[in-house]
Specification:
By secondary structure, this protein is of the alpha/beta class. The protein has 15 helices and 17 strands. The strands form 4 sheets. A 7-stranded mixed β-sheet has the order 4-13-12-11-8-5-6, with helices on both faces. It has a 4-stranded mixed β-sheet with strand order 1-2-3-16. It has a 3-stranded antiparallel β-sheet with strand order 7-10-9. Strand 2 and strand 3 form a beta hairpin. The protein is globular, with a radius of gyration of 22 Å. The structure holds pyridoxal-5'-phosphate. Pyridoxal-5'-phosphate binds next to helix 5.
């Protein structure tokens, strides 16, 4: 693998036509040390490179692949749809393939039975935010314009979604364009479902209440990543706390938006992560795994109650948000097949069963390296923090070393995590653990 990286660097230097892509989530200068991998294929947990070597995709291509790459049933569904039609605009049309996805989602997120389609996760978040505000306007509640999000939240990077994201490094340059948002601090983080705080977070809840009461009358909605916060550091928080927060919101007439873009579709051991509690949100945002990671699709799922507020004339009620490729039939065909697999294959149960195995492997890495702290996990996700001196970019160094071992680790800062295909075999998990261990030790030495 190390020689692959050297070869790529060389070919990039020689090839004047390369270098036109400005990569997402990348400081481009880092490619001088670590050029992009030349991908020629992908199957199961593996990405295949031009020289025939393979890299294990342990973060499921940014959390989109519960089944791994190249899932045959999704591929077949996509091919069948291609034979029929590829894209017809959604406004004013209807087709079985798109209806089918909406109907399935209505079952998965019951009783939220209205599905609004878009393309990317951040759009689904902004649609929920806009619907909430729009309902306030129609209902004559002009004071309720504020959103509350959690510390360490991440909801995407368009300006509305970024406003409710507590990630300084993504926000800094654009603060002047971001709406004011309250970030709730003192969230009771847990190591997993066996942590006592998971079931009882009364003290933390009581300590948070003053922050909530201060803004209660101004809030239109509270937005959360239920149970698992992703890009903010792969953090897990108390189900009891989530429940208290949502009950409080309902009691105060405040909408609840559950952003399940990372946590949805079985990953945490429930089909949707908020289902670890008995709450019913007003909006659920879904994307990523919805098509098995084949094509972009996102949806905002909401209730008939919300829908009814924006139903009928006069004109100011119409929810006019539109994304050109909303409800794209090819993506819908993939989603139909993916949702079938997720439900019939009980991927929520599979993920729950995977937790102790994943944690066992991660604990092994922690024991052998002595370099990890704060191990945590839920369902088919585990994470830990690298022990670092302040300001150190050790996660980046481990990422480079892991690639040399044939592992796509891509830490979040100095947080390492595994978010593999659900149900991945022990043999591959063992290999992931060995490669992670070797990468950490190489950097430590
Ligand atoms: C919880 C959450 N919400 C929203 C988003 C934004 O999704 P997208 O990148 O598709 O806009 C992400 C992306 O990682 C996410 O994890």
């Amino acid at each position: 693998m190390a020689h692959v990286i050297e070869n790529i660097k060389q070919s990039l230097l020689e090839d004047e036509s390369s270098g036109s892509i400005w990569y997402p989530c990348t400081q481009m200068q880092d490619h001088e040390q670590m050029p992009p991998l030349p991908v020629v294929g992908a199957k199961g947990a593996y990405i295949e490179l031009a020289d025939g070597s393979k890299v294990i995709d342990v973060i499921s291509s940014w959390w989109t692949k519960p089944f791994g790459h190249g899932q045959p049933e999704i591929k077949a569904a996509l091919q069948r749809q291609l034979e029929q039609f590829e894209h017809v605009m959604l406004p004013g049309t209807s087709s079985e393939v798109v209806e089918n996805v909406a109907n399935r989602l209505a079952q998965i997120a019951a009783p939220l039975d209205k599905t609004f389609f878009a393309s990317d996760g951040c759009c689904a978040v902004e649609i929920a935010m806009k619907m909430s505000l729009h309902v306030r306007m129609v209902q004559g509640q002009p004071k309720r314009t504020r959103f509350l999000a959690l510390e360490n939240s991440y909801h995407g990077e368009t300006l509305g979604a970024l406003a409710v994201s507590d990630c300084d490094r993504f926000r800094q340059a654009y603060e002047t364009l971001l709406a004011p948002v309250t970030f709730l601090t003192g969230i009771p983080y847990v190591t997993g479902v066996d942590d006592p705080l998971w079931h009882n977070a009364t003290d933390a809840w009581q300590a948070c209440l003053p922050q909530l009461e201060e803004v209660a009358e101004d809030l239109t909605a509270i937005i959360v990543e239920p149970i698992m916060q992703g890009a903010g550091g792969m953090l897990i928080y108390s189900a009891d706390f989530l429940r208290s927060l949502c009950v409080w919101a309902k009691d105060h007439g405040i909408h609840v938006i559950c952003d399940e873009i990372a946590s949805g579709f079985g990953r945490t051991g429930k089909m949707l992560a908020y289902q670890h509690t008995d709450i019913t949100p007003d909006f659920v945002c879904l994307s990523k795994a919805i098509t098995g990671g084949y094509l972009p699709m996102s949806v905002t799922q909401t209730s008939t109650e919300i829908y009814d507020v924006l139903y009928g004339h006069p004109f100011h009620r119409s929810f006019l948000h539109s994304n050109t490729f909303a409800g794209n039939p090819l993506a819908a065909a993939c989603a139909g097949a993916a949702l079938n697999l997720l439900v019939q294959g009980q991927y929520d149960v599979k993920a729950e069963r995977m937790q102790s195995k994943l944690m066992g492997f991660l604990q092994g890495v922690a024991d052998k390296t002595g370099q990890l702290s704060n191990l945590r996990g839920i369902g088919a996700m585990v994470a830990a923090d690298l022990k670092v001196e302040s300001g150190e970019r050790r996660g980046w160094a481990v990422y480079q070393q892991a690639l040399k071992q044939g592992l796509m680790l891509r830490p979040i800062g100095n947080t390492l995590y595994w978010f593999p295909p659900i149900g991945l075999s022990s043999v591959v998990l063992n290999s992931i653990a060995k490669k992670t261990e070797a990468a950490i030790l190489a950097v430590a030495s």
